[in-house]
Design a protein that fits this description.
The complex is a heterodimer of chains A (594) and B (205).
Chain A (H helix, E strand, L loop, with lengths): L29 H6 L4 H31 L24 H37 L7 H20 L25 H29 L12 H32 L11 E2 L2 E2 L8 H35 L6 H14 L15 H29 L8 H18 L7 H7 L3 H31 L1 E2 L2 H27 L22 H29 L1 E2 L10 H4 L40
Antiparallel strand pairs in A: 1-2, 3-4
Helix pairs in contact in A: 2-3, 2-4, 2-14, 3-4, 3-5, 3-6, 3-7, 3-12, 4-5, 5-6, 6-7, 6-8, 7-9, 7-10, 7-12, 8-9, 10-12, 10-13, 12-13, 13-14
Chain B lengths: L16 H30 L5 E3 L2 E3 L8 H26 L3 H31 L8 H28 L5 H4 L1 H31 L1
Antiparallel strand pairs in B: 1-2
Helix pairs in contact in B: 1-4, 1-6, 2-3, 2-6, 3-4, 4-6
Classes of the chains: A mainly alpha (594), B mainly alpha (205).
């Protein structure tokens, strides 16, 4: 393949190996290059920036909630005057507003923050480079996917401005409450339909790219683990999201055309019988929702495992222990994630035989996760590690994800789930997986691949401050949740439990947790400074600063050529993690070295 | 930089990109309609009678509300259009562009025919005052057939483009044009198959 017809541009000067492509050099317009780009790297960066902004915004919503939990009824400091009388008169948050914050924090973090960053940004940028492809298989669909995501995000943000504010029925949108909610819920459904469309376009694109565009010699078993995780993740997105789309359409019908898909006969709201035909079932929504949302949990975690695997192999200078076993576990995990959804529904009264089935599948699905985690731990054995910033984040992921996973076991068994259901315990459990788990891994990925995207390295000192700050604060926020939950503190209390006698013994944790939440915001400041300053002032590095083996480092420049990626299409001769091979010239052997 | 395997098939997978893409897309579509079929089963299992009470009348068979003859005709129309789209693709394979235009034209006309019949069906329901809000049976009927109808409209748009302005590609890149017809045909077969499941499930059972 040659680069003769399409234009190239070089965003950075002074990198090695860039001289060859000065011919046929005509620039794309600003709009085509940065806004409506079809280049997977630019789309990946667009996804990344947008998702990081949404993560910050979703975190901001949480800080407001944490203020309310720590000091119920006190006016919000500094920014209290910003809020209208319908949300927080005199800066004192109303319960309705608190519910909006809760529902939108979950929605934004999952669907607009973590998944777009893990899949849209990292997947888009890295996967074609790792498999030696010139771009994604369908570049225009790729652009459509980003813009659909963007519109979905705008709709979600706009929902705060409609009468009575954004959705208040939780990120799970359970009917009947969601069916009779205010207009914000309709906006939520419309936003979700855009986000689902975006995910589906992305999933088709990733799968086609990975199956069709692998470079010569890049067999499935030679694919880096990160690409494998994206591969399985795309299957989950492809097959799990459509039922939620169906459910969303049904809920829209319920809300706009007065149907009764999720409304039983004789439902009484505020003392009056609701005038609907009835005959529906709220359980139907839960089944359709969790059929998506359980695989979605693995969409959140698998790319994080992929990032961590890349970084651990690179910084231990060792091959990944049992790579094949890890890949098979990953595939098995993907299959199993479709048959565990009702473990979110043990207290709905769906019957003991169904509960029994889902308890068994839930215990089974923990096995492949443990195998993957064990493989990564065993890789550390006897390694002489490089404690770089990305490695610190990746190392922290292992015990944090382990803690999140282990605390999930009692939730997977009905007898222990029933008292813990809907308490702070479950909030602690899944935040351990997603926040100190996935989000730390995503930071690791940013530090690790930053030199690839910019040609410069991020500052190590600021990175380490960022790491220790985030690591300590996250544990400070989430660990006390286990104590609170085991004492029975419910997850959705507007005053954090202050008016409930049974919660008296555990609410003194609330101010401590909130203090850690605000410190966590502070801990992100070095990251923000580092992120923007390093673009201009970071240490210039060559194409492979980490001395890695995979194609994105060994076969391209930093940043890679726009539209085309490779000077010439690489061929692959070996597995992804050939570090410290006895008898080799150096301690890493690139995949494209014959 | 050209993306490989847009026209030629990749030797080890045996398909070109768009063909794999459409199969994956159809897999997600199956899950979409699968979700709705599951909802149908769920609602029906939870109902004491089906279709049940609508506006004070008790119905025990769907055919007392819905028109089986019209739906049967529509089934025939869709199956016919599935045959003609294959003929359209086969005509291109035989290098007969005129026949392609004819068969693709018939396919599109069949799709319009389906919509016209569907219109009469819906109009009859509305005339009787049967609306989605009146019972879960009518609600799921309108959602499922309505979503299927949107897919028919989508098919008309795609096939119409390939019949009209999109057909120019036959002169510049016949191989890829043939692929486009094949991909559109796969989608159209899917729309047909969904109806073949919808018809007995909603009208007959």
């Amino acid at each position: 393949m040659t680069n003769e017809t399409e234009p190239d541009f070089h965003a950075m000067e002074g990198n090695e190996g860039e001289a060859a492509h000065e011919d046929h050099h005509h620039e794309l317009s600003f709009w085509r290059k940065y806004i409506f780009s079809t280049d997977h790297k630019m789309i990946g960066l667009q996804y990344g920036f947008t998702a990081l902004l949404f993560l910050l915004f979703g975190f901001g919503l949480m800080l407001l909630m944490r203020w309310q939990l720590a000091s119920p009824g006190e006016p919000i400091p500094f920014i209290g005057w910003l809020f209208s009388d319908e949300t927080a008169p005199g800066g004192i948050m109303l319960p309705e507003f608190y519910n909006q914050l809760g529902a939108m924090h979950g929605t934004i973090m999952v669907f607009l923050g973590v998944v777009p960053l893990a899949v849209g940004a990292f997947g888009n940028y890295i996967v074609p480079l790792q498999i030696g492809a010139p771009d994604m298989a369908f570049p225009k669909l790729n652009m459509a996917s980003y813009w659909s995501y963007f519109v979905g995000g705008v709709v979600m943000l706009a929902s705060f401005l409609v009468p009575a504010g954004a959705a208040k029925a939780g990120w799970t949108s359970y009917p009947p409450l969601a069916d009779i909610e205010t207009m914000g819920q309709t906006m939520w459904l419309i936003g979700m339909i855009f986000l689902i469309t975006s995910s589906l376009l992305g999933a088709v694109n990733f799968l086609t790219t990975i199956i069709q565009l692998r470079a010569e010699g890049m067999t499935y078993m030679r694919m880096p683990f990160f690409t494998w995780t994206q591969f399985i993740t795309s299957f989950l997105l492809l097959l799990a999201f459509p039922p939620l789309e169906a459910a969303g359409v049904l809920q829209l019908f319920d809300r706009l055309l007065d149907t009764s898909f999720f409304l039983p006969s004789g439902l009484v709201v505020s003392g009056e019988v609701l005038e609907v035909s009835g005959g529906g079932s709220p359980l139907l929504w839960q089944h359709l929702f969790w059929f998506l949302a359980h695989p979605e949990v693995y969409v959140l975690i698998l790319p994080a495992m992929g990032i961590v695997t890349e970084i651990i192999a690179n910084n231990t200078r060792k091959p990944i222990w049992g790579l094949k076993l890890l890949i098979y576990s990953l595939i098995f995990l993907g299959f199993m994630s479709f048959v565990v959804w009702a473990h979110h529904m043990f207290i709905t009264g769906m019957g003991t035989s169904l509960s029994g089935f889902f308890q068994v599948t839930t215990m089974i699905i923990s096995v492949p996760s443990v195998i993957i985690l064990s493989g990564l731990f065993l890789t550390l054995w006897g390694a002489s590690m490089r404690f770089t910033t990305p490695m610190l984040f990746a190392l922290a992921f292992l015990p944090m994800f382990g803690l999140g996973g282990l605390t999930g076991l009692p939730l997977g068994l009905a007898p222990t789930d029933i008292p813990l259901h809907d308490t702070m315990y479950i909030i602690g459990h899944f935040h351990y997986i997603v926040a100190p788990g996935t989000i730390l891994a995503l930071f690791a990925g940013i530090y690790y691949w930053y030199p690839k995207a910019t040609g410069r390295q991020m500052n190590e000192t600021l990175g380490k401050i960022h790491f220790w700050g985030s690591f300590i604060c996250m544990n400070g926020i989430f660990f006390p949740m286990f104590f609170q939950g085991m004492a029975g503190l419910s997850r959705r209390l507007y005053d954090g439990g202050a008016s409930y006698e049974f919660a008296e013994g555990v609410i003194h944790y609330n101010p401590i947790m909130s203090a850690f939440a605000f410190l966590l915001l502070l801990a992100q400041v070095p990251f923000m400074i580092n992120f923007f300053m390093s673009m201009k002032k970071g240490k210039k590095v060559g194409s492979n600063p980490w001395e890695a083996t995979t194609l994105e480092w060994t076969a391209t420049t930093s940043p890679p050529l726009a539209h085309g990626n490779f000077e010439e299409t690489p061929s692959v001769y070996r597995g992804p993690y050939e570090y410290s091979v006895p008898g080799a010239d150096s301690d890493f052997t690139p995949q494209n070295q014959p | 930089m050209d993306i490989p395997y847009t026209v030629k098939s990749r030797p080890d997978t045996g398909v070109y990109n768009a063909k794999l893409g459409i199969w994956l897309f159809l897999a997600s579509e199956i899950m979409l309609f699968g979700g709705l079929f599951s909802a149908y089963i769920f609602l029906r299992m939870g109902a004491p009678t089906w279709p049940g009470m609508i506006d004070g009348h008790m119905y025990t068979r769907a055919s007392e509300i819905l028109s089986v003859p019209l739906a049967t005709v529509n089934t025939m129309v869709l199956i016919a259009s599935s045959v003609t789209i294959v003929m359209a693709w086969a005509s291109l394979a035989l290098n007969d562009f005129k026949k392609y235009k004819m068969y693709m034209g018939i396919t599109i006309l069949c799709a319009f025919g389906f919509l016209v019949i569907k219109y009469f069906e819906y109009a009859a329901k509305f005339d009787h005052g049967y609306l989605p809000e009146d019972s879960t049976f009518l609600a799921i009927y309108f959602v499922m057939t309505g979503l299927h109808m949107l897919h028919v409209v989508g098919g008309i748009i795609v096939n119409g483009y390939l019949w009209g302005p999109g057909a120019k590609m036959w002169k510049t890149n016949p191989e890829q044009f043939k692929h486009r017809i094949e991909v559109a045909g796969l989608y159209w077969h899917f729309v047909d198959i969904v109806w073949i499941f919808l018809f007995p499930t909603i009208y007959l059972l």
